[in-house]
Amino acid sequence: MRNLLTRVPRTMQRAVATTVRTIFDQADAEQVHEQFARTLAQLQERFPAAAALLDPPWVRWRLGSLRAPILSMPSIGTV
Known about the structure:
Elements: H1 2-5, H2 13-21, H3 29-46, H4 48-54, H5 57-64
Helix pairs in contact: 3-4
């Protein structure tokens, strides 16, 4: 996220971060993919350098592997 935000004007960083986080707030994989496509389109329109960071194939693979909500992952220190 930090690398992505360096390619966005400081005044827009909070809005872009919020928009990107919505990708991971979806209930299932299909909704994740739809939100990813919408977010990528928005970024490509206004901030193409930031969008380029979200578009490599490994990001799409990672989004495709999401099956459980992020909140279900163990927190740091609970090994």
